[in-house]
Amino acid sequence: MHIIDQLRARGFVHQITDEAALRAAIDAGPVTVYVGADPTAKSLHAGHLLPLLCLRWLAEAGLDPIVIVGGGTALIGDPTGKDKTRDMLTDADIAANKAALTKQVRLFAPNARVVDNAEWLCGLGYVAFLRDIGQHFSVNKMLSAETFKMRLEREQGLSFIEFNYTLLQSYDFLELYRRYGCRLQIGGQDQWFNIISGCDLIRRLEGVEAWGLTIPLLTTSDGKKMGKTAGGAWFLDPEMLSPYHYFQNWLNVDDQDVQKLLQLYSYLPLDEIAALVVKDIRAAKRVLAVEATAVVHGREAAVAADEAAKAVFAGGASADMPEIVCTVGMPVIAALVQAGFAKSNSEARRAIEGGSVSMGSEKITDVKAVLEVPGVLWSGKKRAVKIVFACG
């Protein structure tokens, strides 16, 4: 099966520019492909992982992979999908984030060339850039792009610096073509306008065809964006989200999303996935949790998280179960916030009032309840954390 067909079958393809030409180029010889990630945070999350997994499939099919960890574009911030201008990061923040993201990227794309676009963007002369690159971009066409159009229609404002982001991403593609012969860019479906703008820039200035492939955004069966919980994003960094909690997020997905997610976040054969989902959806969901966690944290950590989850559901605790250190007499509300089961005291209070909080098998109904003994604190039926008391 052609790699494009494999990607489409697994759910990685939303749109492709000139698919026939791209297929022919892949068949004719090595094609260099890139994906970009701006270091605007300390960690990537599950949604960011999709382009990297797609890149890995392409690399295994013989394409040459490049990843841009964008220290240059992070100085501006991608406005795509944002309701307001991003907060500007300091050079120190970007440097720290870049180091962390580079380490993560190498886990999923070990053979990729990892580059920083600050190498070519930060030395550009502004007037020369406007003359040589800016002349090829139509303001009318840019205003029709969904990102800019949405912000203007909602009267949320759009800074001039954000308006330049498309030019910079397009220039990245051009620079990668000139340096490494890169002719394919992949990214989320919300990056379509930026990607085709880069393809057009390469065609105008170099007279060659370049291609783009976009991946569907990670959504549930009812159309809601995935990768967010009461505790925050599904971060890949184990210090920001433990392997156990990462595992639990996958274990709690809707039954209707299991097959789609197994196709995207595991390397299992498609026929095996289909058979598993038909035979036993609960077993398939556990396989999803194990496989998706193994992709990020390794097989050993995934198995440990699975065993910990089984122990919790049996009514006990496990050495691998996440724990929080509390003090005797600490309000249960505060423990729920510390565990990440609620974003605020008021949200924790509502959870108790709604009857979804318990300590071991005993339901907590008093919003003024305090911790008196160590044990397992539950939020709902599937999220739990071990309570241990600080010595002294």
The mean pLDDT is 88
Q: What is the general shape?
A: globular
Any idea of the CATH class of the largest domain?
Answer: Alpha Beta
User: Which runs of at least 5 residues are low in confidence (pLDDT < 50)?
Assistant: none
- How far apart are the first and last residues' alpha carbons, in Å? 64 Å
Strand content: 5-15%
Biggest sheet, spatial arrangement of strands: 1-6-5-2-3-4
What is the radius of gyration computed over CA atoms, rounded to a whole number of angstroms?
23 Å
Structural classification: alpha/beta
Strand tally: 13
Q: How many domains make up the coordinates?
A: 3
Helix content: 40-55%
Count of DSSP helices? 18
What is the fold-level CATH name, i.e. the topology of the largest domain? Answer: Rossmann fold
Tell me the major beta sheet.
6 strands, mixed
Write out the CATH superfamily name of the largest domain.
HUPs
The CATH level-2 architecture of the largest domain is identified as: 3-Layer(aba) Sandwich
Description:
It is a single chain. The protein has 392 residues and is of the alpha/beta class. It folds into three domains: 3-215, 3-Layer(aba) Sandwich (Rossmann fold); 228-313, Tyrosyl-Transfer RNA Synthetase, CATH 1.10.240; 323-389, Structural Genomics Hypothetical 15.5 Kd Protein In mrcA-pckA Intergenic Region, Chain A. 47% of the residues lie in helices and 14% in strands. The strands form three sheets. Strands 1-6-5-2-3-4 form a six-stranded mixed β-sheet, with helices on both faces. Strand 3, helix 4 (91-108) and strand 4 form a beta-alpha-beta unit. Helix 12 (243-251) packs antiparallel against helix 15 (281-297) and helix 14 crosses helix 15 (281-297). The model has no long low-confidence stretch (mean pLDDT 88).
